[in-house]
Amino acid sequence: MSIQIKPGTRVLIRTYSAGVHFGTLIERDGQEVHLKEARRLWSWSGALSLSEIAAKGCTISSSKISVPVEEIVLTQAIEVIPIHKNSNINSLWN
């Protein structure tokens, strides 16, 4: 079963070998995900899991989050989680 996530949705992506990224979904084709305004999440604190970051956020000041890139194509996406409107990582787009 595949959940359909609409383009324009902010998502958090866990890949097989490229780590964790979050950004605005442009397109998804199987395990290939194309994001815009994307950042890499190297490490985080204040949240137990990626699901919790997508739902509520993390402690941004003590997490390692990269600068944004205009666009990125990620292959081997194994987890795609929509970011809830209440997650504090939404503040990184402002």
Give structural notes.
The chain is mainly β and 94 residues long. The protein has one domain (10-93): SH3 type barrels. 6% of the residues lie in helices and 45% in strands. The chain contains one helix and six strands. Strands 1, 2, 3, 4, 5 and 6 form a six-stranded antiparallel beta sheet that branches. β1 (10-15) and β2 (20-29) form a beta hairpin. The chain is globular.
Sum this structure up briefly.
The model has no long low-confidence stretch (mean pLDDT 95).
Question: Main attributes?
Answer:
about 90 residues, mainly beta, SH3 type barrels
Question: Helices, strands, pairings?
Answer:
Layout (H helix, E strand, L loop, with lengths): L9 E6 L4 E10 L2 E12 L6 H6 L8 E2 L3 E6 L2 E6 L12
Antiparallel strand pairs: 1-2, 1-6, 2-3, 3-4, 3-5
